[in-house]
Amino acid sequence: MPPFLFKPFPLSLILTIIVAFMKRLFAFDVDDTLIPRGEAAIPPKEIEAINTRLSAGDAIALASGRPFASLARYLASFNEGEKYVIAFNGAIVYSLAGAVLYSQTLSYADLYYVYSLYADPKFDVYAYLTDGSIAAFKKGKYVQLEEEINRLPSSLILPPSPNGVDLTTPVAKVMIGADPDVSKTIAFHDFRYDVTRSSPVFFEILHPGVDKAKGVGFVKEYAKAQEAFCFGDELNDLGMIKAFHGVAMGNAVEPVKRTAKIVTKSCDEDGVAYAIEHLLAL
Q1: Which residues fall within 8 angstroms of residue 25, CB to CB, at 6 or more apart?
Q2: What is the pLDDT of residues 207-221, one digit of tens each?
Q3: Which partner from 31, 56, 90, 106 sits 20 to 30 angstroms from 68, CA to CA?
Q4: Bridge partners, residue 64, by sequence
Q5: Sheet order of strands, 245-248 included
Q6: Residue 223 pLDDT > 70, yes or no?
């Protein structure tokens, strides 16, 4: 009886099989990436496309400057699966159940230091506490905007002097809110911090080494994913766009577009779904 003859599989077929079993992490910015400006919910096409990745066994994460509770509400839009929250631009990473998996925070001492530099009334200086609430020195319009967008309770108003205040109280990040023409004048150079912008009106100060890329990297390892695809539009997305398989929205700022491996359609055109379905060849 002749021996069995085995024909070698084509390399392209082998690679296709390997890719089919490769676990991926998909990390998404929220505002102007998943959710168009002025809208309150993730569009149905984006939800459907992301659900296909969950069904395939991939993990997803929302990576935003927002607090946990705000992001967890959006994760509830998707089907069951492996889901994570990368909050406060990477300062704290949570499981879907709200367990803290990773954390690098600042403190009230940092908040008061920033306030000493930007105490002018044209700036709103405030901080996100680790429970997702806000501590501020006044109820300025940008503090109120944060409360409205993220459905937060009324902010804690701190005294202008740190006397008697527990300066070790942890905070996720320090914020400076100001009108665009004022915000662009902020020149904050201090090696003790990392800084970023999430919009023309929000300037953010973080623990050194913290950004969305750090959060995505942690989740990728934690989830045992082989690849990470990151979607974003603003400067606070630049780190993760550069570090992983970056996908820039059609409405992204130019530095993000130049850095990304792929530029998809705009947020208003369901650009996330378009990239998942057509550009990534998944």
Answers
A1: 58, 59, 60, 61, 216, 219, 220, 223, 225, 227, 228, 229
A2: 999 999 999 999 999
A3: 56
A4: none
A5: 100-103, 92-95, 82-87, 59-63, 24-28, 227-232, 245-248, 262-263
A6: yes
Q: What is the pLDDT of residues 149-180, one digit of tens each?
A: 899 999 999 999 999 999 999 999 999 999 99
Residue % of the chain over a pLDDT of 90: 85
Q: What is the pLDDT of residue 189?
A: 86
- Distance (Å, whole) CA 63 – CA 231: 9
- Closest residue by Cα to residue 240 from 229, 251, 224, 249: 229
If you search the block for the tokens 């009106």, which residue do you land on?
201
User: Which 3-state string (H, E, C) describes 253-266?
Assistant: CHHHHHHCCEECCC
- Do residues 86 and 103 touch, judged by C-beta distance below 8 A? no
The distance from CA 260 to its chain's CA centroid, rounded to whole angstroms, is 16
pTM of the model: 0.88
Q: Quick one: residue 117, left, alpha or beta (phi over 0 = left, psi -120 to 50 = alpha)?
A: alpha
Residue 66: Cβ-neighbour burial (10 angstroms; 0-12, 13-18, 19+): buried
Tokens matching residue 217: 């990297």
* Residue 189 token pair: 């150079």
Tokens of 111: 């908040």
